[in-house]
Amino acid sequence: MTVSTSSGYVVFDKVEKTYDGRVLVVKSLDLTVARGEFLTMLGPSGSGKTTTLMMLAGFETATGGDIYLDGSKINHIPPHKRGLGMVFQNYALFPHMTIAENVAFPLRVRNINKADAEAKVRKALDMVQMSDLGGRKPAQLSGGQQQRIALARALVFEPKLLLMDEPLGALDKQLREHMQYEIKRLHETLGITVVYVTHDQSEALTMSDRIAVFNDGRIQQLATPDELYEKPQNSFVAQFIGENNQLRGIVKDISGGRARVEIGNSDVIEALAIQAESGKPTIVSVRPERVEIEPMSSDIAATGRIEEVIYLGDHIRIRMNVFGNSEFIVKVRNGSGRRGFAVGEEVKIGWSLQDCRALDV
Ligand code: ADP
Ligand code: MG
User: Fold this and answer.
1) Sign of torsion, CA 146 152 154 157?
2) What's the gap in Å between 325 CA and the centre of ligand 2?
3) What residue spans of the chain are helical by DSSP H?
4) Where is the domain boundary, 205, 230, 255?
5) Probe residue for ligand 1, chosen from 20, 27, 45, 51 as the CB with the greatest number of ligand atoms within 8 Å
């Protein structure tokens, strides 16, 4: 979907949070979520994702700034009046109630009449493909089924905004991936706005329209999945999303958006000057799959001494020493007629300028 920031459905305006009155765990956060968007907050543990989501849900109060929902300031609206659906990793179902009673719970709280409630519960159970199990108790369901019921319970009153905090964290890999597609499908068919929290980059890349990468209480970059991968704006994002080779050097000079970077003692390579300053240290970032071995032509040429070769079926992973960095990784697609690689061998390698970014240290 295309995202228009003018249609801000959720707006964080310079939002801050401190728990102890001293340390800001969320720092001057600006974030706009469009109506109908699937926005993910992605970042390492402790980076402020849950706190940010809890402020939107109303379970935590912002200690600075304002939060708007659909044009109205909601800072002081209690959670149950915000009309949001919520699913958390440990959002336990009520064990003594049946599945249908669990899903009906938000409707009972809202005084929906019995006939309407029954129809809505059926529809919500259908949505998560659990219509046959309404009579069971939670303990009779698997973890994945329980999480689907939690999702049905969050959707049953047709909220405009669905908040999810690591909802798939407790599931095994296969089920997690299956649920990622189900949630994405529900988002597409229902057209609701979703704000999703995860520390898992592949989950974020799979599901999201846009991703806000968090670190240390700040959004490091807000972009679509492919833009984050192709055009990381700083070293943290380059390192956190996907794999990345880092070559440390000093910027000699910058012109026309290109930096000349001295790596080691005498080698100088060119890189896009994304976050680089003349005379200052920089990290040059190159993705392992963008490096070619024995290229016909390339913007940047180097020599790599092969240190280790790992066969991974669909690709070969080669660790090399390049410009004195022995952790330089090159991924080669496996195919027929591929040449062999021997440890100790020296090979010519190269990559294009577009794949080479000079970033902050
Ligand atoms: P994330 O969800 O990205 O892991 P959190 O928002 O849970 O991050 O935490 C951000 C920071 O705030 C962490 O340093 C965490 O220890 C702290 N924190 C979170 N909740 C509380 C709380 N209720 N009281 C005090 N500190 C908290
Ligand atoms: Mg969290």
Assistant:
1) negative
2) 35
3) 49-57, 99-109, 114-127, 143-155, 173-190, 201-207, 225-230, 235-240
4) 230
5) 51
DSSP 30: E
Integer Cα distance of 302 and 293 in angstroms: 10
Could you read off the pLDDT of 159-173 as tens digits, one per residue? 989 999 999 888 888
Length of the chain measured in residues: 361
Report whether residue 48 contacts ligand 1, using a CB cutoff of 6 Å: yes
**Last residue of some domain: 203, 230, 257?**
230
| Ligand 1 pocket, residue 198 CB under 6 Å | no
Pocket of ligand 1 contains residue 32 by CB under 6 Å? no
CATH of the domain at 323: 2.40.50.140
For 180, half-sphere exposure in the C-beta direction (CA atoms, 13 angstrom radius) is 21
Q: In the chain, how many domains are there?
A: 2
CATH of the domain at 148: 3.40.50.300
> pTM of the full predicted structure?
0.91
What's the pLDDT at 1?
A: 44
pLDDT in tens, 24-77: 999 999 999 999 999 999 999 999 999 999 999 999 999 999 999 999 999 999
